[in-house]
Amino acid sequence: MVKKEWGTFVEIFGITPKNRIIEFFLEMRELDFSIGDIAKETGLNRATAYNTAKDLIKNNIIVPTRKLSGIQLYKLNLQKPEVQVLVKAFNEVLNIIEKRHQQEEIMVPQ
Asked: How does pLDDT run across 28-83, given as a tens digit for each residue?
């Protein structure tokens, strides 16, 4: 099994199935995905992805968008205030990482 490198969101909030799916949707927030795609992209087995997604759907974190060849697709619910807070926090963490990376480039002689 290949070691998966987790994103900063998961490293901060814990490597749980729910956080892995939320991080995936935060990274790809403008796109919609099937539960099977979510399982594949997050490294979760399908049963875990379905059970976790069911909870996220129930809590209106992810919402159905459309059906494609009979398969339901889901997207992050950017209208939900709690999700908006997660997006802001995620973006702020990315900004911090970018600034750190820029500082490291300055410190390394070229």
From this structure: 999 999 999 999 999 999 999 999 999 999 999 999 999 999 999 999 999 999 99
8 Å CB contact between 35 and 50: yes
User: What are the backbone dihedrals phi and psi of residue 47, each rounded to the nearest 5 degrees, phi first?
Assistant: -60, -45
CA distance 54 to 61: 10
Does residue 62 contact residue 75 with C-beta atoms inside 8 Å?
A: yes
Q: How far apart are CA 20 and CA 70, in angstroms?
A: 25
Domains of the chain (ranges; CATH) run: 9-107 (1.10.10.10)
Q: What is the average per-residue pLDDT within 3-30? A: 85
50 with 15: CB under 8 angstroms? no
Q: How many Å is the Cα radius of gyration of the chain?
A: 16
pTM value? 0.82
